[in-house]
Structure formats: structure tokens, C-alpha cells
Specification:
Blueprint lengths: L1 H4 L5 E15 L1 H4 L16 E15 L8 E12 L11 E9 L2 H10 L4 E3 L1 E5 L2 E6 L2 E7 L9 H8 L3 E6 L2 E9 L5 E2 L2 E6 L6 E8 L3 E5 L3 E2 L6
Parallel strand pairs: 4-5, 4-9
Antiparallel strand pairs: 1-2, 1-13, 1-14, 2-3, 3-4, 6-7, 7-8, 8-12, 9-10, 10-14, 10-15, 11-13
InterPro entries: DUF2071
Length: 228
């Protein structure tokens, strides 16, 4: 199945109702899950996870007609990594620790063609209240109506620049570029953040993107180290 992930397939679609819930954890909690060759990006002495909660619509390989699209809600625990050696000195990378959806077909297809690490879970959306649950593990939060004051410009700069995901296919480090025409993230008030997916999680801030964002997920390419 690993060979299927190497196929030069570009996916296109739309991002709707994007929520970026950011929390930090002790580095020791995530280091066991990070493959050799990738390093945790430092955020005030901790590791930073930018959880994306998004509704993907009209998704499909670019060679397929729009009528054959698929839609689903995607939740992803994206660990920020220090990929400066692979990105001309600018850290913009993530590593998917885990991802979730309610659709069994997407879990199966994702395991064949991507390194999202998709798992099935229960996802509840009730207005601005959200719950992710898998067995006894949970993550909850509620978004407010008012914009949060700009508390930490460093957090917005780090999260807003993320545009590439790293993984290994057949022991080869590869990178997927995430292409968006625009990415106007804005602060949003988030309360009631709780999770036991991570034992040392500490909420850092939340962003949202208003409107629909055209999106492309490019084929994976081998990574070469840059000389800085």
C-alpha cells in the first residue's frame, strides 16, 4: 500500500469553516511519535500542536470530474516541526500525529493514499460548541462571538505560515506542499478547551478563516537538505 502514497496525484477542493485550535504540550510527550530526521519546533520550551478542524468539500484528484467529489469533516493534530534545513531556513512544516473523521470510507481511502493517519471518531458540532471523542479520549471547546484580542503575534505568525507536511514513505522522507490562494486567519475567542488526548496540553490560542478557501494538496516529493 505504501506505493499508492507515492502516486503523483494532486488533490483539489474547498476549505470551509476552518478552525485552528492551538495548544502546547511537553516535548517529551510527542517525541516518541516523531520519526528520525524530524525535530520538534520550539515554542517557549514546549511543542506546539495546531489542531485543524475543517469541512472539506468538492475534494477530488484533479483529473477527476467535479461530479465525483467527496466531502468530509477533517480533524488533525498537526505538530509543528523545525524544517529549516529543508526549507531554505524558514520553518513552515508540520507532521500529522493523528487525524480523525466520522466516515469509514475516508479512513480506508486515507490509509491507502495519504499519510494523514486517519482514524474514525465521533465528531459533534452544536453551534460553536465542538466535541471530538474516541473511546474514553475527548477534546472539547467552544468558540465565542467576539474576536479575541491579539494576544501573541508570534503564534499567529507561526501558524499562518504553515504550508507543508512531512512524512516517511518506504523509509524515504517526503514533503507535501499545501497550496491556498489566500489564508486570512484571524483571532477568535475560545473557551472551555479540555482534552485528554494529551496529558500535558495547555491552550495557547485559536484562529478561524471566514469564507471558502480554494485548496490544493500537491503530490509528495523527496526532501533534500538545504545548505544554510
Amino acid at each position: 500500500m505504501e506505493m499508492l502514497k507515492k502516486l503523483p496525484i494532486k488533490y483539489v477542493g474547498e476549505l470551509h469553516q476552518v478552525r485552528l485550535i492551538n495548544f502546547s504540550v511537553d516535548k517529551e510527550e510527542v517525541l516518541p511519535y516523531l520519526p528520525e530526521g524530524l525535530e520538534v519546533r520550539d515554542y517557549n520550551g514546549r511543542a506546539l500542536i495546531s489542531m485543524v478542524n475543517v469541512k472539506l468539500r468538492n475534494m477530488r484528484p484533479d483529473f477527476m470530474p467535479k461530479a465525483l467529489h467527496f466531502d468530509y469533516q477533517h480533524i488533525g493534530f498537526r505538530l509543528l516541526i523545525d524544517d529549516a534545513l529543508y526549507s531554505d531556513g524558514a520553518a513552515k512544516g508540520i507532521f500529522f500525529l493523528r487525524s480523525f473523521t466520522e466516515k469509514e470510507l475516508m479512513v480506508q481511502g486515507g490509509s491507502w493514499f495519504t499519510n494523514y493517519k486517519l482514524e474514525k471518531a465521533s465528531i459533534t458540532n452544536a453551534g460553536d460548541t465542538f466535541e471530538l471523542r474516541q473511546g474514553s479520549s475527548y477534546l472539547n471547546y467552544k468558540l465565542g462571538d467576539e474576536a479575541q484580542p491579539k494576544a501573541n503575534p508570534e503564534l499567529k505568525e507561526m501558524v499562518g505560515a504553515l504550508d507543508r507536511a512531512y512524512s516517511y514513505i518506504d523509509k524515504e522522507l517526503v514533503r507535501v506542499r499545501i497550496m491556498r490562494e489566500r489564508w486570512p486567519i484571524e483571532w477568535v475567542t475560545c473557551t472551555g478547551f479540555e482534552t485528554n488526548f494529551f496529558q500535558t496540553a495547555r491552550f495557547e490560542g485559536a484562529f478561524q478563516v471566514r469564507g471558502m478557501i480554494p485548496y490544493q494538496w500537491l503530490p509528495p516529493k523527496p526532501v533534500a537538505t538545504c545548505v544554510l
